[in-house]
Amino acid sequence: MTPVESNETDRPPVYTAADAGADSILVVDDAFMLRDRLAVAFQQRGFRVETAEDYDQAIGVFSARPTDLAVLDLRMPGRSGLDLLQKIKQLRPATRVLILSGFGSIATGIDAIRLGATNFISKPADADDILAKFLQGDEPGPLPRPDAEFPAPSLARSEWEHIHRVLADCGNNISEAARRLGIHRRSLQRKLRKRAPEDPGQPM
């Protein structure tokens, strides 16, 4: 695995596998760059890391090499993170699962907890943010109302999500993604090296 240039890999970790009381973690996200960045970061924190890009791949990986923790993207092509959450809990009830929920999916994140997730966290989130949520245990604290209003994502955040969705649709082929986006390949590479932009006022 080739580490992706990121602030995440440049700073010392706040939490480690020992802090989380776990030896292994599964990261499931259809955005390759995000998945790879988190995998590198979790490896640096002492975890055995397994990765997958969708439901089917995740079930195959998890069945062969179960993990203590699992981080699942809520929205992926094909079956959702909620479907995957339920299947993982069937296969190994002891696995603690955290759901990554993007804009407009807070209510579904609450549903994830009711279905057995340890917690949920809004994107963008780095390895330490994720481990902090696991360390909170099974009590996520006060949950926002499902009908609560949340600020729209920033333009930078929307662009970041669109770029990673196109890249995933292209099978992580940077040249093809650049062609579809109408930008130069080098410009796309520069954008991919940046961490996901924060949204001011984004709920956690």
Report on the structure:
The protein is an alpha/beta fold and 204 residues long. It folds into 2 domains: 7-135, Rossmann fold; 155-192, Arc Repressor Mutant, subunit A (Orthogonal Bundle). 45% of the residues lie in helices and 12% in strands. It is built from 10 helices and 5 strands. The protein has helices at 7-10, 17-20, 32-44, 55-64, 81-91, 106-114, 127-135, 155-169, 174-181, 185-192; strands spanning 24-28, 48-52, 69-73, 96-101, 119-122. Strand 1 (24-28), helix 3 and strand 2 form a beta-alpha-beta unit. The protein is globular and about 45 Å long. The model is unreliable at 1-9, 140-150 and 199-204 (pLDDT under 50).
Brief account:
This protein has 204 residues and is α/β, with parallel strands linked by helices. It folds into 2 domains: 7-135, Rossmann fold, CATH 3.40.50.2300; 155-192, Arc Repressor Mutant, subunit A (Orthogonal Bundle), CATH 1.10.10.
